[in-house]
Write a structure and sequence with these properties.
Strand content of chain A: 5-15%
Number of strands of chain A: 9
Largest sheet of chain A: 5 strands, mixed
Shape of chain A: globular
Strand content of chain B: 5-15%
Strand order of the largest sheet of chain B: 2-1-3-4
Radius of gyration of chain B: 17 Å
Radius of gyration of chain A: 21 Å
Helix content of chain A: 40-55%
Strand order of the largest sheet of chain A: 6-5-9-7-8
Distance between the termini of chain B: 19 Å
Structural class of chain B: alpha+beta
Mean pLDDT of chain A: 94
Oligomer: heterodimer
Number of strands of chain B: 4
Low-confidence stretches of chain A: 393-397
Distance between the termini of chain A: 35 Å
Order of helices and strands of chain B: HHHHEHHEEEH
């Protein structure tokens, strides 16, 4: 797939006016437009946005809520920070459009505590929207009223999981709930609630302003539209890139000026690590899904050191309520310590991989279900390096 | 160590409850403001907040201890959080960590005796393309070098 030079996000003149347009349509029409675009959630899980909104619209309740998940905690992800600070309108009005589509009265932005420095900018933007009647009572003369409140997180990665986020909004520990019931039925304070990623709201804005068919021109059969990718690690031009879904990892590496690459970590700490033999694979929900984090490692990097960094992260960020995640991550980290000392047999390593697979099935939320991904992919794809680590004796080099 | 006057705390909690409401969903915003203002959330503060929100103090304690930005121990005026996640790690975390410990005469996890500085590690703060990065309270610093760190610390001393 060639690199398409069109940009959805980075050309402000091309954004158009989606809110005005949405308010002339019925809520059902807005939801149908989103469904037709085949937009899928940009946080990484890829749930069809139109379906989520349809479920929330059809839910019968006197109150409904929209939540913008700005708890961007996945290592290597920073696209939401860029959207919130530089393309604020797309996100904010995307939230208002979602509110209209499901007939909610209130929206929340759950902003991670680490991004508290964005608070002034975001609050003054909301104030401006209220003055321009794009937020508040009878928005733009319609009979739709809606307001947005920003809530800060307090440094817990797991709150990026939608039910943990809702727990946190309600003033509890950020521990994931059992699903079902899903938030579209029983969300914030028990009312129907949609939780979407920052980028999903920006995409919804674009779908409304440009039309579903225009949006669906880009990407692959099951992954429509453009994706923002946050690139960091060993490359000449780290930053946020807008690419069509279906882009080959190889083409992305060329685009960002990566040289002497050994491995690419896709989708952050909870994603998978691929070797150079797999860079013909593509970024899409069909092949390698991602919330947008790409971290590049060159030939000088020690894969065991990288894996240790990821596993320490999960041990510290596991909320501890379910056993597979609380104990499993610790066991995997202990395995890495054994590998470092050269005392982890191949047989035991295989047992740890099986433990990882059990965690993927048995953990309660996405954290424990995905935390074994880097362990399994790194020890599988770089087995010779991992097993010979103690001979080299390096860490970090 | 100077603990805030109990009356000051009671007044502050009263004001915060007026501002945010006395529902359970106001708990985090209230705790965040108390943390910001006093540098920690004392046992007394937790009891006072629990009383006002009509929940058990243990509920408040459970929330405070869950979130890494809330603490039951006094923190420094400047809380320095160095990102230790992989992109920053690759960008030269060790040199920056050594510099911070040396210049502040603190180890990670410690607060200075004059309660001016707290040094901590944190996970990814979304500055991966501009590593090494750190937060000082709510301000972000990027592309750190040892000399840049010394300059920043000196300006706060």
């Amino acid at each position: 797939m060639p690199i398409i030079n069109d940009t959805v996000f980075f050309d402000e003149k091309a954004h158009g006016e989606a809110l005005e347009k949405a308010l002339t349509m019925s809520p059902q029409e807005v939801v149908l437009e989103i469904r037709e675009s085949q937009l899928r959630g940009r946080g990484g899980a890829g749930f069809p946005t139109g379906t989520k909104w349809m479920l929330a619209l059809s839910a019968n309740a006197d109150k409904k809520f929209v939540v913008c998940n700005a708890d961007e905690g996945e290592p290597g992800t920073f696209k939401d920070r860029v959207l919130l600070s530089e393309y604020t309108k797309l996100v904010m009005e995307g939230i208002v459009i979602a509110g209209y589509a499901i007939q909610a009265q209130k929206g929340f932005i759950y902003l991670r505590g680490e991004y508290a420095y964005l608070l002034n900018h975001l609050n003054s933007y909301l104030e401006r929207m209220r003055k321009e009647n794009r937020l508040g009572e009878n928005i733009l003369g319609s009979n739709f009223s809606f307001d947005i409140e920003i809530r800060l997180g307090s440094g817990a990665y797991v709150c990026g999981e939608e039910t943990a986020l809702i727990e946190s909004l309600e003033g509890h520990r950020g521990e994931a709930r059992n699903r079902p019931p899903f938030p579209v039925n029983t969300g914030y304070l028990g009312y129907p609630t949609i939780v979407n990623n920052v980028e999903t709201f920006a995409c919804a804005y674009i779908v409304l302003s440009k039309g579903a068919q225009w949006f669906a021109k880009y990407g692959t059969e099951k992954s429509k539209g453009m994706k923002l990718i946050s690139v960091s690690g060993d490359c000449k031009k780290p930053g946020v890139y807008e690419v069509p879904f279906g882009i080959k990892v190889k083409d992305l590496l060329d685009l960002v000026g990566a040289e002497d690459t050994k491995a690419v970590q896709i989708s952050g700490a909870s994603g998978i690590c691929i070797p150079m033999s797999e860079i013909e694979r593509n970024i899409s929900f069909e092949d390698i899904p991602t919330g947008g984090s790409v971290i590049i490692f060159n030939k000088d990097r020690n894969m065991l050191h990288i894996l240790r960094n990821f596993m320490e992260f999960f041990v510290e960020e596991s909320c501890g309520q379910c056993t597979p995640c609380r104990v499993g991550n610790k066991k995997l980290l202990e395995g890495i310590e054994m590998l470092e000392k050269g005392i982890c047999s191949h047989h035991y390593l295989n047992e740890l991989i099986e433990l990882g697979k059990t965690m993927q099935i048995a953990s309660k939320c996405g954290l424990g279900q995905s935390s074994p991904n880097p362990f399994i992919s790194i020890v599988t794809n770089f087995k010779d390096e991992i097993m010979s680590n103690s001979i080299r004796g390096g860490n970090g080099k | 160590m100077v603990y805030p006057d109990k009356n000051v705390l009671v007044n502050e909690v009263n004001n915060l409850v007026k501002k945010y409401g006395n529902g359970r969903e106001s708990l985090l915003p209230i705790l965040q403001d108390v943390q910001r203002k006093f540098g920690f959330i004392s046992d007394f503060a937790m009891q006072e907040i629990a009383h006002k929100l009509e929940i058990h103090p243990v509920e408040v304690y459970g929330v405070v201890t869950f979130y890494s930005f809330l603490s039951t121990e006094p923190k420094g005026k400047y809380v320095i959080r160095l990102c230790k996640t992989i992109s920053c790690d690759l960008a030269g975390k060790d040199a920056i960590a050594t510099t911070l410990q040396r210049e502040l005469n603190l180890k990670f996890g410690e607060t200075s005796k004059d309660r001016k500085f707290t040094l901590e590690y944190c996970h990814c703060i979304g500055m991966c393309d501009q590593g090494q990065a750190m937060l000082i309270n709510e301000e972000v610093f990027t592309k750190l070098t040892p000399s840049k760190v010394i300059e920043i610390i000196d300006s706060l001393k």
